[in-house]
Amino acid sequence: MWDSARVGADAVPIRTARGWLEIYPRANAEHRYGLGALLLDPDDPSKVIGRTKNPIMVPTAAYALSGFFGYVVFTNGHIVDGDRLTIYYGAADECVCGAHFSINEILSRLS
């Protein structure tokens, strides 16, 4: 899988009607980091009931591709405002950025 080399946990899970949504950083075999999402059972969060087949975010901007440790984005935290999810993320281990997502869109990508 796209996250088979390294998986981490950062921001707290987000309660949704379908379960706990977790945004997590991962690395592939080439040490390139991105963000994925998985859904945990609402009653037993030790059970994964869905996950993205592909990352929801990968480094593409110059500030994320080169730096102290390039090709890296990782979560620092988030703010939920209805369906709008603002994820604060680190890029290339040098700067902190923000990106907006739709929670429903992320949930639709889980399998």
TrEMBL record:
A Pfam family: Glyco_hydro_130
InterPro entries: Glyco_hydro_beta-prop_sf, Mannoside_phosphorylase
Signal peptide: none
Family membership: Belongs to the glycosyl hydrolase 130 family.
Protein name, entry field: Uncharacterized protein DUF377
Domain of life: Bacteria
Gene3D superfamilies on file: Glycosyl hydrolase domain, family 43
UniProt KW keywords: Glycosyltransferase, Transferase
GO MF annotation terms: glycosyltransferase activity
